[in-house]
Amino acid sequence: MSAKNHRINEQIRIKEVRLIADDGEQLGVVATDKALEMARERDLDLVEVAPNAKPPVCKLIDYGKYKYEMDKKNRESKKNQTQVKLKEIRMQPKIEGHDLQFKSKHVLEFLQEGNKCKVTVRFRGRELAHTHLGKDVLHKVLELLGEENYNLDRAPQMEGRFMSMILSPKAKKK
Hints:
Layout: E1 16-20, E2 26-31, H1 32-41, E3 45-50, E4 57-61, H2 63-79, E5 86-91, H3 97-112, E6 116-122, H4 131-145, E7 150-159, E8 162-169
Parallel strand pairs: 1-4, 5-6
Antiparallel strand pairs: 1-2, 3-4, 6-8, 7-8
């Protein structure tokens, strides 16, 4: 639950709440008016931390400080996330050997950066009658990459005039 949608002090309109003191001590089920009074005496706020519990759980804390801590936790968790991008490499069924090696090297670089890669073969005109050539090109790419460098997320498959497969990087062992 984010810090934005907590009910505090007078916003809590239920008869009684389970109260937790600022030091973490359980004070039991208390009438809301009494809990508000205790909060004012200690110069703190009454914050509803678990609204779905029966009765709702409230804490005596400094709301500004609590909100700051929650935002800090959210920023920390976002810092450790990595965005995985889907890169695409396009080829044609009549690709030459050197070009195939060059493009396979790029696919490998994308995978080593931690990105997924979509390898696509585009068929033009009468090439569409020879889709087996496209499948051969995609299998050659897999051979050039080496099995230890990728996971095959989606095997080669036709999508209109394109045949494509999706590769993801192998998980790194720690």
